[in-house]
Amino acid sequence: MLQDKPMRSKTFPQVSSRRLAHVVVGICCLLFITLGVIVLPYPGIQNDEALFAAPLYRPHIWYAKIAIFHQTFPTMLASYLGTLKTLIYAPLFRIWAPSVLSIRTPVLLTGAATIWLCFLLVYRLDGRRAAVAAAAFLATDVTFLLTTCFDWGPVALQHLLLVSGVLLLVKFHQDGGKQAPWLGFFFLGLGLWDKALFLWPLAGLGVATLAVFPRELMQHLRLRIAVPALLCLAAGAFPLLVYNVRSRGQTISANAVFAPDAIRLKFTELINTLNGSALLGYMTGEDWMDHPRLPRSALERFSVWLHKKSGDHRTGLNGASFLLALVLVPWLWRTPARRPLLFMLVFLAVTWFQMALTAGAGTAVHHVALLWWEAGARSCRGGHRRLEPFGLQPAPGATHT
Hints:
By secondary structure, this protein is mainly α. It has helices spanning about 20-40, 45-50, 55, 85-95, 100-125, 130-140, 140-150, 155-175, 180-195, 200-210, 215-220, 225-235, 240-245, 250-255, 265-275, 300-310, 320-330, 340-355, 365-370, 370-380; strands spanning about 65-70, 70-80, 80. It has a 3-stranded antiparallel beta sheet, sandwiched between helices.
């Protein structure tokens, strides 16, 4: 994570220019938006997808509020869910009436912004080719697309705030501390307010950084940096902190319940989410269900024709590609890719085990999807350095579902 210089490869030619890389990633973002626009109108609005709007039309539907200058602002929708999304949509709904389009278009654009920021992050860590591959991975990943577009988790703001915060912290480290990291910590605090389970990936980042990059971390642990950083983190999470002070820690007491008995079920959900099959039967109907709707538009008829020609593929290649990445770890042990790969493994393990050991968590795809930005960013790095003797050059994005 905290590398000073991008790792380069003589075997893998870099994308010809920085401008071309930006054009390619722009196309990836447009592809993501296009795919989202295609599927956007099909499912109806789900209850959790519209939950953020409740305080806008039923003013007493909230867990907590703050009064500022005689104006009351809802701050918590549940003991673990803040109203950040509510406050973002409030001015939007004044000019764009609530509908499928007005609810889903902003989060779709948020997903595109996450892809772009992920590109900038991986660019700083690994160079152009890996960054373009990571963007292509996320833009074409079915789990990232559907959980972002319909955002019943919600996860769209979680991804955006986490990637934004990490990007700013990496920039702070690589630029030699010339720019303060405080905005990055503020974004991470906003993520905690948005949804308290943001603590899972935040803890994963902290443990992974301490375990893999302790020297780089200690380099920045100075009072003049740490104290303002913690204050900015607290400022972002301020509504959540106020709620827990008033409710005597309701967020933790009501949600942090240890339940290790369902780990097998949660591991199955992890595998199904990884291979892209978790939403079959939930987001879309199965072929064996009664009264299937016949295709109406040209695009629907083309989709049915393509399905018949290509066959029924219920899983993608993510599971196999992730196992391949694990196999490559010993092979890459003596290369610059070792520490980033270890960082990825520690982050994924710590983040997933938190949801696996928590009651009511980890059994839904929108929980597992919190791992996606990191998996996408890291899946494309490092491996080609050991493929050189075989003359193998995997294409960018070859690991996507």
